[in-house]
Design brief:
834 residues, six-stranded mixed β-sheet, 27 helices
Length: 834
């Protein structure tokens, strides 16, 4: 009776410890998963305990311990207890806890993606098709003491369930994971893994498991010898400690950071390994078995990592691998007195190997087949949306503080409106996060309002700037139009003055009258020069001045520039000469108009400030980095300049000093225009000077050498129109007609003049009369077009700007008529000069 009482007490206490073991699984699994799935994991742990007890009562117990059919399976009847056997109910409950433990192992492996319905299917498969059958093979005669299962008869030994419980639970976990697949994002997070929401609870769960294991192994002594209880409990404790220590040593040896969960898994693997023979091990053997279990579980975890198998709680390496190791270790480390009578240690090892292998294959194969079949009918896994939302919400409608916070934050993200505060649960950590988040959104709203105000101000500024830019563009257009109009309106009367003065100079008059007329003529020419400088400077500043690149004779151009100042130099008794290097070929490519303007400006400037001595023009060609550069230098023996004066000589409206303008006149624009023209041609200009000895201006302009002879002499810029269209400011070329009188007599017998200014009409008429030509004078382009419909003039002199129709439009219309056999030569003077 005393022995029975001890067995009752041991079994009763063990039941309590096994219930704590279930609590340990719940804490471990719910803590190691993310918070959005913690409630679902807890619900599954509660559900499997409830269903396993009922299913084990209905069929599981009798299939495991009922009358055996060939040692393969028991009977199919519900659990039945006679009034005479008071121990059987406790034994039933004890075995129910074992079955629940096997099922709960699977729960952690499929956590975070298996649905409740899918987990219910896993429970049914395990309790009705897998666990009772494996239990019958190994423990069918455990209650009666008479071996009935085929492995039991063969000598297979499993004291407390390393194979029956842990290989079975781990094998079904492996089959389930293979069927269900990894969590969403598992492959992307493979290197860093997942972090559980409450690691303290997870570690607490491991401690509960360790504590529960004393009931797991200790309760099993009631079927053998209760006197083994102290040694069983000691071996259990030693094996768990050795398993954790083994993992610790491996991590230290590898130099890894200590992973507390890996060490905890090593403890559980040590407990799993010692479970099969904890009653027949010495303490040394228990330590070795536990140590080996920890080492095997660690490297099995690394293997799963390499195979990319997603097991959140590492149930497969801990229970499946640890269970196989535990079954094999029995034959290796058991006391010699525990060997079966008919087997030596090697034969016993083969029996243990056969049993562990058959159980592992049966569990994984049957589990995979049944679950795969069901998964084709109804998925075991939740939808992708539900998995992302979290199983707490998807399967239970359970709203957590964190979920509410994330939903409110998601609403802010989608709407972009942060004016609505998130919900706050006071006196909680999440509530504090929500409170601080609301403060951040308040600051953001304030900053956003300030930003909107700034944007509004910037928009107003932009509008104002656009208006100012538009007005500036209009002003620029008005300026251009004004300059063009002024050019026309000022030049027209001045040209009239110059023209009439030139005509008067051809008349017979006294020397005094000749002097007066010459003064009028030179003054008008000076005024034209000043106007030209101002207009050129304005065009350059407005970016409206363009360059051309054509072939021209540089030697002839320089000679023409010198010829312009030849008379002026003779009058001042100044020696004006040029020196052109033989390297300078006649024909080069560049802008002859602007080069001419530059040379004339510099020669004019030198002659102006030189009272005696000489003015020289030198030219050379220098090859610089595969680019030919035209080097021109104008040297004089004039008044010279100081260094300070040289620094500002190229500044617009600046001269050497204030007395210069009074003494020599000028606008101070000539050298500024010269420098800007040189820079537009990507050249350089510099000046060296010494007071009282003179100055030297040297400029360098890139040019392209010509490979053929130069074209005939180039004359002033004109607008030339041919049958293909209009080319503004085309370089007209004089034709070799020989004698001018011959050209006039043979070609210009019919000349048409289009000019709206009466004075210019009179001047042109006088010029034509001097040449012996009678011309037809019209006032606008419209009259010219109408005239050409019935006549074919040989030469047309036409102003560019006229009322009703300008010269360009008139020229285009004349060319488009196309009925003339010989198109007239049309000359439209640029800058309205005749």
């Amino acid at each position: 009776m005393a022995s029975e009482a001890i067995s009752f007490i041991v079994l009763f206490v063990s039941l309590g410890l096994l219930m704590l073991m279930q609590v340990g699984f719940l804490c471990l699994e719910s803590g190691i998963v993310r918070s959005k799935n913690s409630i679902n994991v807890a619900a599954k742990n509660l559900m499997d305990l409830m269903l396993v007890i009922l299913l084990f009562w209905m069929l599981g117990y009798s299939m495991m311990y009922g009358d055996s059919y060939y040692g393969l399976i028991g009977s199919f009847v519900p659990f039945y207890n006679t009034a005479n056997d008071l121990f059987l109910p406790l034994f039933f409950l004890f075995q129910s806890m074992f079955a629940a433990t096997a099922v709960t192992i699977v729960s952690g492996s499929v956590a975070e993606r298996c649905s409740l319905k899918g987990y219910l299917v896993i429970i049914l498969v395990m309790i009705l098709f897998i666990y009772p059958i494996v239990g019958h093979w190994v423990w069918a005669g455990g209650y009666t003491g008479q071996p009935e299962g085929w492995l039991e008869k063969a000598g297979f030994y499993d004291f407390a369930g390393s194979s029956v419980v842990h290989i079975t639970g781990g094998g079904v976990a492996l089959a389930s994971v293979l069927v269900i697949g990894p969590r969403i994002g598992f492959y992307e997070r493979l290197s860093m893994g997942y972090t559980g929401h409450n690691m303290v609870m997870t570690v607490l769960g491991y401690l509960f498991l360790w504590l529960g294991w004393f009931g797991f192994n200790g309760g099993s002594v009631v079927l053998s010898d209760p006197g083994e209880l102290p040694m069983v409990l000691l071996n259990t404790a030693l094996a768990g400690a050795a398993g954790g220590f083994g993992v610790l040593l491996v991590e230290l040896f590898r130099g890894d950071k200590l992973d507390i969960l890996m060490i905890a898994n090593g403890i559980i693997a040590g407990l799993v390994g010692v479970t099969a023979g904890c009653n027949i091990y010495s303490t040394t053997s228990a330590v070795l078995v536990g140590f080996g279990g920890g080492i095997f579980s660690f490297y099995a975890s690394r293997l799963l990592f390499c195979l990319k198998i997603d097991d959140p709680v590492h149930a497969i390496p801990v229970y499946f691998v640890g269970g196989i190791w535990g079954a094999l270790a029995v034959a290796l480390f058991a006391d010699a007195s525990a060997l079966p009578d008919s087997l030596n240690r090697w034969q016993w090892f083969l029996v243990q190997l056969q049993g562990a292998g058959v159980i592992a294959v049966w569990v994984v194969a049957v589990g995979w087949f049944l679950l795969k079949f069901y998964n084709r009918l109804l998925p075991l896994r939740v939808s992708e949306h539900d998995e992302k939302v979290g199983l707490n919400m998807a399967e239970h409608g359970a709203r957590t503080e964190l979920f509410d916070l994330l939903q409110d934050m998601k609403s802010h993200q989608d709407s972009g409106d942060f004016s609505q505060e998130v919900r706050i649960e006071p006196y909680t950590e999440i509530g504090q996060v929500a409170f601080q988040y609301n403060r951040v959104t308040q600051s953001f709203n304030t900053a956003q309002k300030a930003l909107h105000a700034s944007i509004a101000e910037l928009e107003q500024t932009r509008v104002a700037l656009d208006e100012a830019c538009h007005k500036a563009e209009q002003a620029s257009e008005y300026k251009s139009a004004f300059l063009a109009n002024m050019s026309h309106e000022i030049r027209t009367p001045i040209n009239g003055v110059i023209g009439m003065a030139e005509i008067l100079l051809l008349e017979d008059m006294s020397d005094k009258q000749q002097s007066y007329i010459q003064t009028i003529h030179s003054s008008a020419r000076g005024l034209i020069h000043i106007i030209n400088d101002i207009l050129d400077y304005s065009k350059i500043e407005a970016g409206e001045l363009s360059l051309e690149v054509i072939e021209f004779d540089i030697r002839q151009l320089l000679q023409e520039c010198l010829d312009i100042f030849r008379v002026q130099a003779e009058e001042k008794h100044i020696h004006l000469f040029s020196k052109v290097s033989p390297e300078v070929c006649s024909s080069i490519h560049g802008d002859p108009t602007r080069i001419r303007q530059i040379v004339i400006n510099l020669l004019s400037n030198s002659l102006k400030f030189t009272e005696s001595g000489s003015v020289s023009l030198k030219a050379d060609i220098v090859a610089d980095d595969e680019v030919n550069r035209l080097i021109l230098s104008i040297t004089d023996t004039g008044v010279g300049m100081t260094e300070e004066q040289c620094e500002r000589v190229f500044t617009a409206f600046q001269q050497a000093d204030n007395s210069t303008a009074r003494q020599y006149g000028g606008t101070g624009l000539g050298l500024s225009i010269t420098r800007q023209l040189v820079e537009m041609m990507e050249g350089t200009i510099k000046v060296s000077s010494e007071v009282g000895k003179g100055s030297c201006f040297e400029l360098s302009i890139p040019v392209r050498m010509s490979t053929r002879a130069a074209q005939p002499t180039r004359v002033a810029e004109t607008l030339s129109v041919d049958e293909t269209g209009i080319s503004c400011k085309e370089n007209a070329v004089t034709r070799e007609w020989g004698n001018t009188d011959r050209w006039i007599n043979t070609v210009c017998s019919d000349v048409l003049v289009a000019e709206d200014n009466r004075v210019n009409q009179m001047v042109i008429r006088k010029y034509l009369e001097k040449l012996g030509i009678t011309g037809h004078i019209l006032e606008n382009g419209r009259q010219v077009v109408d005239y050409c419909k019935g006549h074919t003039p040989q030469l047309i002199l036409m102003d560019c700007e006229m009322p009703e129709m300008d010269g360009l439009t008139a020229t285009r219309l004349i060319r488009e008529q196309g009925h003339h056999k010989l198109q007239p030569l049309i000359i439209e003077p640029v800058n309205n000069s005749v």
